[in-house]
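note to self — DONT lose this again. spent like an hour looking for the file last time. sequence + predicted structure for the chain T wanted, 184 res
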Amino acid sequence: MIDEQLAETKKKMETSLDATRQELNRIRTGRANVAILDKVIVEAYGQNMPLNQVASFAVPDPHTIVIKPFDKSQLSNIERGIMKSDLGLPPNSDGSIIRLHIPPLTRERRQELVKIAKNHIETGKVSIRNLRREANDFIKLMEKEGEVSEDEMKEGLEKVQKLTDEYIDKMDKLILKKEEEIMQ
């Protein structure tokens, strides 16, 4: 019973880690990364659609993202979607593809981005800690209801803490990697 709870908690912590990793990938690093386009919405065919459903992406060099529409008639809609997004990158179109030039980041902007990344990490850590609390409460309830012994409860709580420490450590490694990436 405790092992099932641990497995469920680990799965939820992994989901939290993945969500934090995705948020970090959306942070611009001065290097072209198509993940910054994940939240761009384009009005195409009378609907709002994610950009990746109406175009393909390529990164020919570290400072350029090339967007090639599946349907060239959607080029102007894609440009509008990019301009409406919070990217702050003007699209350059040649009639068949769109190029986004990623300008070099200033030192101040890099420091701001590191702060944003750290906020995402802290949110992820809070999520991990909340999952620990839920698992601990469940294990304590099991002991209170007589489903497990006190020793089993203590062992379960220790395992939950080890799992929490493992995922907090993974979060710390994520921010170190992202901070290094941003400051380069």
